[in-house]
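Bit of a strange request maybe. I'm writing a small parser for structure token strings and I need a real example to test against, not something I typed by hand. Could someone generate the tokens for this chain?
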Amino acid sequence: MLSDTIAFGSIDKKTDDALVFNKKTKSVLIDEYRRSWARRYLREARADLEEAERTPSASYDLKLEALKKAQSSIYFSLGCPEQISQIVEHSILNNVEVKNPVLRCLLAIEYKIQQIIDSYSENNEVEQVPEIVQIASSIVDLYT
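Reply from user aminoacidic:
Good idea to test on real output. This should exercise your parser:
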């Protein structure tokens, strides 16, 4: 279980303690607009996964879309998606050592998206996508 306070990597330092989100004040951090977008992206990710099961010929593209939507749902549930995206990008580009479990999860999702894009193939197995969508669901439920 995640602790009450979640700290994310800093854009300015090579540590992961600059941006702090407190679950007890989540209503202040996330307005109804972002909360509704987080939930919407999560619903769409689940729908894309269901459609991928029904349409094997489009499975790869639908699972990739589901993964991106799950990622977006997490970003919206944590606050400002643009800032979260910058933190993830900075952590990847600068090989920042990440101790925070949520940021590690965000990095893993970003790596998985890049891995799927880089190894594009219709026969490519993207079996981890449903599990990642479930993890996104848990994070969104926790913060919204």
